[in-house]
């Protein structure tokens, strides 16, 4: 695996997963540099784009505006398309292992995570003494009405199944000490934000509106949204299993009560219609058997969710890296 001067430390590393969004990425880098210039600190910054198996290579030469605060822009090429969350996991592991820095800014490359909010996130992180991951909490979204309706349904389902509200995405600042803890969480391979919550890493929220895309249309369709939601909920598989067991237990208790009431009415009163008790009892017994079978399955799912994963991001991430290309400055 080839790599550029990865050992040289920068104050900040900005990690951006990319899939064919090179036009947006080019504009984003320029706006990010302008936003960082407005900070009173003279920190150095390095931008790493995680190329998640793009079918369109970055333009060559890759033209960028004059950058003053960003000292290097690199592309971390993956061997294949892993999906947004796993590309993030590989990128974070690469930064933790090869790119010493004070903090990592994680943001999307389409411009919906506004560069103007990066200084605010950094300020909040510094105010916490660099001891908390700071997430951008979405207070206003810019997607279509249909997408927002689907996202609301996902949030309600996530809250019902896990007991945890969905309030954040990927846009965040991660202090280096917490990054070293995060990359040994196997849940990071499925969902970044959920893994932070599951690992009980200290975090804070900063209300921010979601900006509009810089170029083109969103690639997040219904299938991608469902996959994203399932990935997040899979991190809390044990909690989901326990909650489903409780619901099934309640339904089982109701079925037993209904069965007992049916038998009592049949044997103790004259209210029964011939044949109805046998039919009702048979249906309740079938229903009760299915509930008990489902409870057994969910018990094993909940217990299985507590077993350690065989995939450890910090150990295994390197298998997915094809190489690293520097696109700025080009003379190095």
UniProtKB/TrEMBL annotation:
GO molecular function per UniProt? glycosyltransferase activity
GO biological process terms on file: lipopolysaccharide biosynthetic process
Q: What class of enzyme is it?
A: transferase
Q: What is this protein called?
A: Putative glycosyltransferase YkoT
The Enzyme Commission number assigned here is 2.4.-.-
Q: Which Pfam families match?
A: Glycos_transf_2
Keyword Transmembrane helix recorded = yes
The Glycosyltransferase 2-like domain covers 14-147
Query: Where are the bilayer-spanning segments?
Result: 240-263, 283-305
Q: Which SUPFAM superfamilies match?
A: Nucleotide-diphospho-sugar transferases
Keywords of this protein's UniProt record, alphabetized? Cell membrane, Glycosyltransferase, Lipopolysaccharide biosynthesis, Membrane, Transferase, Transmembrane, Transmembrane helix
Q: Which PANTHER family match?
A: UNDECAPRENYL-PHOSPHATE 4-DEOXY-4-FORMAMIDO-L-ARABINOSE TRANSFERASE, UNDECAPRENYL-PHOSPHATE 4-DEOXY-4-FORMAMIDO-L-ARABINOSE TRANSFERASE-RELATED
Question: Cellular component GO terms, alphabetically?
Answer: plasma membrane
Q: Tell me if Transcription is a UniProt keyword of this record.
A: no
Its ancestry begins with: Bacteria, Pseudomonadati, Planctomycetota, Planctomycetia, Isosphaerales
- Report the domain of life of the source organism: Bacteria
- Please give the Gene3D superfamilies that the UniProt record associates with this protein: Spore Coat Polysaccharide Biosynthesis Protein SpsA, Chain A (3.90.550.10)
Coiled-coil regions, chain positions: none
């Amino acid at each position: 695996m080839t790599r550029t001067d990865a050992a040289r430390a920068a104050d900040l590393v900005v990690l951006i997963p990319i899939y064919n969004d090179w036009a947006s990425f080019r504009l984003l880098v320029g706006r990010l540099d302008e936003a960082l210039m407005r900070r009173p600190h003279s920190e150095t910054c390095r931008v790493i784009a995680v190329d998640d198996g793009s079918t369109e290579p970055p333009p060559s030469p890759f033209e960028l505006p004059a950058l003053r605060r960003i000292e290097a822009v690199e592309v971390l090429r993956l061997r294949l398309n892993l999906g947004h969350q796993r590309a993030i996991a590989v990128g974070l592991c690469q930064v933790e292992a090869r790119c010493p820095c004070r903090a990592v800014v994680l943001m999307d490359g389409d411009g919906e995570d506004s560069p103007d909010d990066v200084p605010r996130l950094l300020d909040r992180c510094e105010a916490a003494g660099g001891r908390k991951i700071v997430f951008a909490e979405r207070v206003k979204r810019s997607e279509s009405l249909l997408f927002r309706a689907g996202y609301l349904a996902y949030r309600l389902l996530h809250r019902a199944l896990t007991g945890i509200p969905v309030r954040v995405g990927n846009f965040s600042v991660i202090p280096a000490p917490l990054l070293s803890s995060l990359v040994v969480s196997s849940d990071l391979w499925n969902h970044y934000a959920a893994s932070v919550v599951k690992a009980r890493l200290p975090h804070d929220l900063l209300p921010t509106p979601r900006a509009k895309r810089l170029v083109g249309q969103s690639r997040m369709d219904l299938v991608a949204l469902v996959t994203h939601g399932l990935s997040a909920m899979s991190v809390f598989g044990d909690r989901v299993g326990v909650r489903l067991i409780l619901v099934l237990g309640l339904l089982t208790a109701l079925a037993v009560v209904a069965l007992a009431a049916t038998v009592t009415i049949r044997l103790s009163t004259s209210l029964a219609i011939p044949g109805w008790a046998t039919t009702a009892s048979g249906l309740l017994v079938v229903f009760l058997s299915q509930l008990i079978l489902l409870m057994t399955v969910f018990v094993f799912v909940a217990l299985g969710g507590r077993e350690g994963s065989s995939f450890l991001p910090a150990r295994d991430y390197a298998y997915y890296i094809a190489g690293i290309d520097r696109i700025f400055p080009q003379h190095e």
